Amino acid sequence: MPVENQNTTPRRALVTGAAGGLGREVAVQLARRGCVVAVTDINGEGLAETITLIGEVGAESESIVGDFTGEGAPEAAVEKVVARWGGIDILVNNAGYGVIEPFLDATYRAWTRTLALNVTALAMACKAAGRVMREQRSGRIINITSPGSRMALPDYTAYTASKAGVDSITRAAAVALAPYGVLVNSLAPGMMDTEMQRSTEVDLARANGRDDLQAFLDERTRRIPLGRRAEIAEVAEAVVWLCLDSPKYMTAERLNMSGGLDKD
Fold this sequence. Notes:
Blueprint: E1 12-16, H1 21-32, E2 36-41, H2 44-56, E3 61-65, H3 73-85, E4 90-93, H4 108-136, E5 139-144, H5 157-177, E6 182-189, H6 195-207, H7 213-221, H8 232-244, E7 254-257
Parallel strand pairs: 1-2, 1-4, 2-3, 4-5, 5-6, 6-7
Helix pairs in contact: 1-2, 1-8, 3-4, 4-5
């Protein structure tokens, strides 16, 4: 599919965690909408595949391979986008990590790694992009959160706690950047067929002593009021809407896209 709006000045986007799944789909959809897109991930091979897909729609791209939890890594990624294209208009904080472990067996390593990527790196990316956007007096930041941030999930507490942190950061960043015309919102996707979702549910079934994985998955799917799991492409469409099309008066908002699983 060709790039849209080729005669307009392209918006400059950075998508984290873009080596596959939702991040890849968001990056490709942004490219189709006429954006130039930088993508970052620790998985260089997957990121190369994403760059190829972006190239197929005729958009410019930039690959940033590395561990986003390193001190200064989020800031360096934003600096690379600015150096390449002169600014940044869109940041999608999609990179995430989660591990299944019963609460009473929680480990320091799992909590540290989860919070380092899902909270600290995300906050630093918001800060770095926010500073550039403040000077531009425009920009949009979208943070990927989770319905789990408002649920009691004792086998997944580090992840859900980290996403509650994402919700808090989103609100704080939105208020800090509002005077400069910068919008900060989040999106809470439901169950999708991503690599992270699949591996998490395999571990969750094992932790709950469930040998029949398909029966376990079907049972979880039946909890969703719409009766099905989300398609990656449709969730990405909602993220792109927040990036490009949502009202300019909408900020500090959490958009639920969980098929009714997460209810306000």
